[in-house]
Amino acid sequence: MMDLKLSGNWRLQWFEPGQRPPLEIASPSFVDDRFWMEARVPGDVHSALVEKRVIDDPFVGHNDLKCRWVEDKEWWYRTAFVLDEEPDGDETAELRFEGLDTFATVYLNGLEIGSAENMLVEHVFDVTGLLQRGQNVLAVRFDPVRLRVKDKEKNYWCGFEKDRIWTRKAAMNFGWDWGPRLVTAGIWKDVSLRTWRKARLFSVFPRTVSASEERAVVAVDAEVLRRMDGGGPLEVDVRLTGDGRTFTAKAVLAAAGRSAPSGGPQDVGAGSGQTGAGTGHAGGGTGDAGIGDAGAGFGRTLQTCSVVLEVDRPRLWWTHDVGEPFLYRLDVTLKDADGGVLDRQTHLVGIRELVLETKHESGENLFCFRLNGVRLFAKGANWIPVHSFIGAAEDARYEKLLRLARDAGMNMLRVWGGGIYEKDVFYRECDRLGILVWQDFMFANALYPDYNRNFMDNVRDEVAKAIRRLRKHACLALWCGNNEIDWLYEKELAAGRANAPLYGKRIWHELIPSMLRQLDPTRHYQPSSPWGGNDHNSMEAGNHHNWQVWHGNVEPRKFGEPLVQDISVEGVSFKNYKKDTSRFSNEFGMHASANRHTLAKYIPEGEFRWQSGEMARRNKDIHHEKGLLLMEGCTGVPRDLDQYIRYSMLTQAEGLKYGVEHFRRRKPFTSGALIWQLNDCWPGTSWSLIDYELLPKASYYYARTFFAPVAATIDHDPGKPAAVWLVNDRREAVEDELLLEVKTFEGKTLRTEAMRIAAGPGEARRVAVFAEEDLLNGGRPESAVVRLRSRGGLFPDNVYCLRDFKDLALPKARLSVRRDAGGSAITVATDNLARFVMLDIPQGEVACSDNFFDLLPGESRTIELRHLSGEPIRIHDIRVSAVNGDERLD
User: Fold this and answer.
1) Number of CB atoms found within 10 A of residue 669's CB
2) For position 295, what pLDDT does the model report?
3) Cα 558 to the center of its chain, rounded Å
4) Does residue 779 contact residue 732 with C-beta atoms inside 8 Å?
5) What is the rounded CA–CA span in Å between residue 708 and residue 333?
6) Are the C-beta atoms of residues 653 and 646 closer than 8 Å to each other?
7) CA 199, CA 195: separation in Å to the nearest integer?
8) Which residues 6+ apart lie within 8 Å of 349 measured at CB?
9) Any bridge partners for residue 565, and if so which?
10) How far apart are CA 556 and CA 483, in angstroms?
């Protein structure tokens, strides 16, 4: 068997569409590629052009407009590879492209072997008999998207660019309200050549049948692609190893297409194990869940088998906030009748039971994930593609972002439906870190031509491949058919603007659920997000997208009613979160500036100023006044760039704190808070918590407190009583002594209250209520700060001001700053309250133990800094200041 990765020696060139005959360029004798540019694979055309300085960085200034010509060209990749010998006559040879973006035609040794029209999934070509000893030439042609879809019907609803309706690629490439239009092309994932004899493993699906602390039952389904002339029976051996023990089972696939079970209890090595009976069936891959191009070629059949393992005293997989995300090693080996190994796959798998509860025992609606019998509160964010040039994004970028998410207390991320089915590294890291994944299928904010047979064949192949690739992951929690289509279409219908039926309905209401019943019946599926109740975006049932805050949508709304927007200070205010009684809020948020370093790096000199055209261009949303209205209600309208960066970050952080703490106090009747959005694909102004340069914003550091497994919070509005709550997401009961401190901004103590507090497993409990005047004890609300502190370190400190920032009477604070000689720590001290202390970091990828924090009068705090790639931190270039004070230079 051969498995050869074809990652080197690729060259790239562009032509006008149709300029040269394709077979001429694909021919092994074509010598002009000596003068083509080198290109990375995986990668993309834009990144290669930037690297070779053919185009300027599209993220700088207006350069994205200057490189629009790229999407109108015909692009060719070529490489050559050498084989010492031709594959044997009984070997099947397959050429596998894990990602082709998008309209691609593939040539091997001058022969056109096939084409692809889908960026989102892999494509496999049978090249048996086409390889030769010595040099082989591989060429790939990418046609312009616009050329391929120019004659298609697009006169119906679609958010953003309509070419994407017919194009199965990342929708965000055509521009979104947080990123620029950059229509990519290229070989964006790995390419490999492999050979196999008789049969190979087509797919492996480990699934937990049942699980408890005493015993788990794990089934492993294997699909085997075999040649019809592959001879006698095949054996599938399954080995599950972990916690010092091994469990085994096997199944036999008969040549006639029947599976014969085999195996029984036995001792395994030094540990004890049990083999489950290998039960299952074999058959051809027909129907919706067929083998697609991965079974290209004649004389193939797809057989299936299933084995069952009984695991005593299993180590269960948990999200990181409630337990250990333990992973077992799963080895699946395919053998022929003589015991020869034909194929092998190894995966890290988790044993866990995950169900979605939709009814409380009281009869009230829920949308609550129950993991291993424990109700979870889903804390996290929406995940968009990590870069506009997805193929060029390295695995390390994923790893850094996911560790930051874990460190902020997030236990769930939603892969949003306008991007991609994420790279393998994403799901591997979520498995390892204990982060659940809400997985959208890649349909967003548009109608899709489900009336077209060729389009539906493409989608059917895509859905089957996506399910098979992702279903093995313990982190995968839920499948969702699309993003906002049903909700937004019904809104258009109610407003009389819909000029077509709900095209695409057959995809997410018929095709996808049918295929999931065949390929993954273990997980909850819902057709769209949001979904449920008397309006697809109802708070009464299902999940909810709260766009009252920021977009000013007036809620609640019912089917048939027009959507009303109130774009005013009150209409977009984050105080509206208090009205949100949704069961699961998986989109909500507001804009904040990127960090100063990120903006300065990409905005041309002379344009980095408040309200410049370049600054406005960083905001891809419509109605830019929404951000100003939000700040007007919280901080006041900024007057310069420095205030804009601070005020927008402060408003976002305080707004998300206000919303998330409200949602968590409602558990279990609200059981999820997924912020829009975690990350950025370019250096812009958006809803993100972490900017493009991987510098966390203020809201990220706030999240470490409002997403903490145990949190003490205050429910208070100006002039109203203040209720103190203890929220416990742990599996065990907690108790502690809570210290409530009320001080003036100058440091005078107004009140101190120590109280014993407790909460049961998974409980939110109100532990005390204080009248505002009792808290203040004669002080003024605009000059007082409240802190909740744990005596035993159970929860992080939580600090509140009793009035909005714009109404505070802040004194001047003098900050004393000491920088550690080793370059990894900064200590800050203050005389008066220092509000929103900011370490302004002039380099990317630096995370702090805390930042954008309130420092109480007379106190100090030491901040640890680390570079995500281990590079030195320019600690002496870090500027430290608060909104009411600067570093003292004396």
Assistant:
1) 17
2) 54
3) 30
4) no
5) 42
6) no
7) 10
8) 206, 240, 327, 328, 329, 330, 431, 472, 474
9) 553
10) 20
Q: How far is CA 144 from CA 73, 148, 184, 323, in A?
A: 6, 7, 10, 49
Q: What is the pLDDT of residue 277?
A: 38
Kindly provide the b/e burial profile for residues 789-822, where b requires at least 16 CB atoms within 10 angstroms of the residue's own CB: bbeeebbbbbbbbbebbeebebbebbbebeeeee
Work out the number of other CB atoms within 10 angstroms of the CB of residue 696: 23
Q: Identify the helix (H) or strand (E) that includes residue 741.
A: strand 734-744
State how far the Cα of 703 lies from the Cα of 686, in Å rounded to an integer.
17
Q: Please state the φ and ψ torsions of residue 662, each to the nearest 5 degrees.
A: -60, -50
Provide the 3-class DSSP secondary structure of residue 662: helix
Q: How far is Cα 184 from Cα 577, in angstroms, rounded to an integer?
A: 38
Determine contact, residues 322/731, Cβ cutoff 8 Å.
yes
Token digits of residue 887: 């570093």
Residue in the structure block whose two tokens are 């005013």? 568
Distance CA 303, CA 342 (A): 15
Confirm if 743 and 727 have CB atoms less than 8 A apart.
no
Q: How far apart are CA 834 and CA 837, in angstroms?
A: 6
824-855: burial string, b at 16+ Cβ within 10 Å, e else: ebbebbbbbbbbbbbbbbebbbbbbebbbbbb
Contacts of 34 (CB under 8 A, 6+ apart): none
> Under DSSP, is residue 310 helix (H, G, I), strand (E, B) or coil?
strand
Place of tokens 């690739």: 469
Alpha-carbon distance of 421 to 700, in angstroms, equals 25
CA distance 824 to 865: 5
Computed on alpha carbons and rounded to an integer, the radius of gyration of the chain in Å comes to: 29
Cis previous bond, 526, omega within 30? no
Residue 88 CA to residue 95 CA, distance in Å, equals 16
Backbone angles phi, psi at 827, to 5 degrees: -110, 130
Give the number of other CB atoms < 10 A from CB of residue 337.
Answer: 13
Contact present, 438 and 494 (Cβ < 8 Å): no
d(CA 420, CA 171): 8
The secondary structure of residue 873, as a DSSP letter, is P
Asked whether 411 and 376 are in contact (CB, 8 A), the reply is yes
Distance CA 801, CA 775 (A): 12
Q: What is the pLDDT of residues 190-205, one digit of tens each?
A: 999 999 999 999 999 9
Q: Which residue, 744, 754, 808, is CA-closest to 778?
A: 744
DSSP reduced 3-state for 123? strand
What is the rounded distance in angstroms from the CA atom of residue 123 to the CA atom of residue 191? 10
User: Token pair 């199965």 is at which residue?
Assistant: 168
Question: CA geometry: angle at 640 spanning 867 and 633, to 5°?
Answer: 95
How many angstroms separate the CA atoms of 253 and 591, rounded?
A: 56
Residues constituting the chain: 890
How far is Cα 196 from Cα 225, in angstroms, rounded to an integer?
Answer: 10
User: H or E segment at 112?
Assistant: strand 111-117
Tally of CA atoms within 13 A in the half-sphere of 426 that contains its CB? 21
Distance CA 11, CA 187 (A): 11
Could you tell me the CA-to-CA distances from 640 to 608, 610, 611 in Å, in that order?
Answer: 11, 5, 8
Three-state SS letters, 407-456: HCCCCEEEECCCCCCCCHHHHHHHHHHCCEEEEECCCECECCCCCCHHHH
Whole-angstrom distance, CA of residue 675 vs CA of residue 309: 39
pTM, two decimal places? 0.96
Residues in the chain with pLDDT values less than 50: 256-287, 296
Q: Are 591 and 685 in contact (CB under 8 A)?
A: yes
Task: Give the pLDDT confidence score for residue 271 in this predicted structure.
Answer: 30
8 A C-beta contact, residue 629 and residue 638: no
* Distances in whole angstroms, Cα of residue 13 to Cα of each of 32, 67, 80, 142, 761: 10, 15, 15, 11, 61
Q: How far apart are CA 741 and CA 714, in angstroms?
A: 12
